[in-house]
Amino acid sequence: MGITMHLAEVEADKIYLQEKFGLSPVLYAESVGLLGPRSVLVHMVWLNDADIQKLAETGTHVSHNPSSNSKLASGVCKVPQLLAQGVNVALGCDGGPSNNDYDMIREMKLAAIIHKAVSVDPLIVPAESVLEMATINGAKALGLDHEIGSLETGKKADLVILDLHRLHTTPNPNPVSTLVYAATGGEVDTVLVDGKIVVQGGRLVTLSEDEVIAQANKHAQQVYRRAGIDIRPKWPMR
């Protein structure tokens, strides 16, 4: 059975484990048997060089969540260094409260640009690498790369078709670059999961979108009331 665990997300994680056990988050995970090819460690922001080397040696996977890390001011994962050491880095959106959406395409753009800004290197973490993080690397992290993650004979027909005939995605000399830097989930036209169409014409066919929206609004208000949370815009809205 695989394990997914959030680790080294905030600096407090590092400080606590260092003070209590005298270990970095990665070395603590190793001490309790949590490193290895069946483990996906999420966030992994607060790493040192020895941690990265240990992840590479053990074949442990990392899930990079740049939107969540940015919104919560957790820091920036050392993705270029992880990739350089051969660590398999996948891409995730984390949860709705720390991201606001589950748009993997927008997540790809942030993953592609944030490390360029940090490293002051416009060529680092190119669009092709980010697309791999969102597809085949994610499949590898789950141990399912023999079934999904790329379009190959013998694999399941899991695919997304986008309509890039839009103003903001024109011109389109390099489809991978356009996808990562210009597209959003709004350009998704069709989605197939194991050959079954689940999105067509940009709309779900397995659920009523209107019903999902109505239920989401209803239950969100109930949660706010139970939690005693009064959410109001800072600006007056009509």
From TrEMBL:
GO molecular function terms attached to this record: hydrolase activity, acting on carbon-nitrogen (but not peptide) bonds
Keyword check for rRNA processing: no
One Pfam family named in its UniProt record: Amidohydro_1
Keyword DNA damage among UniProt keywords: no
Keywords associated with the record: Hydrolase
Ranges where the Amidohydrolase-related domain occurs: 1-198
Name the record gives this protein: Amidohydrolase-related domain-containing protein
Organism: Dictyobacter kobayashii
